[in-house]
Amino acid sequence: MADERGQGKNVYLTLHENFVREDIAYTDRATGERKTFNQVRLPAGTVIDGKDVGSCEFTPLFVDASRFKGPEWRDIPLLADREVWLKRSVLDPEGRPVTDADGKRVKDVMKVMPQEIKDALTASRRAWAEEHGDDPRALADRGRAARDSAEAIDRSGRTRPDAREIG
């Protein structure tokens, strides 16, 4: 479904499972009922409006297994017209969390739109791929070359380096 601006109702973020904590249990103070919530931490190098928001966290209502990337990836649907509150603990120069007079951690809060997060994640992934993508060959070609090398070693009868006697 699209609105008159041509945008869908939801923005979907896709993150690796290492950045998503699902079904964290807690007890509701008012009712005593056991409930759960989800938590997402943005990867390092995620920049929005010139500010690094890596390690900022937010709590989405839903987290789903990714339909396109595989079982270790998660899709997070966010309403396109609602701000997301990114929170991060404020740290002192030694790296310890700063606390207020009541002993609670002081949080840095940044309000952003979901599309800004999606664009920032796309940009950081692209930058990472350019930095780490030195080999111009496709993944299938690199795998084939590795298999061919391993088979050549087996055919030559040489032992693997870790199987040699040291002496």
From TrEMBL:
Span list, region Disordered: 123-167
Biased composition (Basic and acidic residues): 127-167
The protein's name in its UniProt record: DNA gyrase
Lineage of source species: Bacteria, Bacillati, Actinomycetota, Coriobacteriia, Coriobacteriales
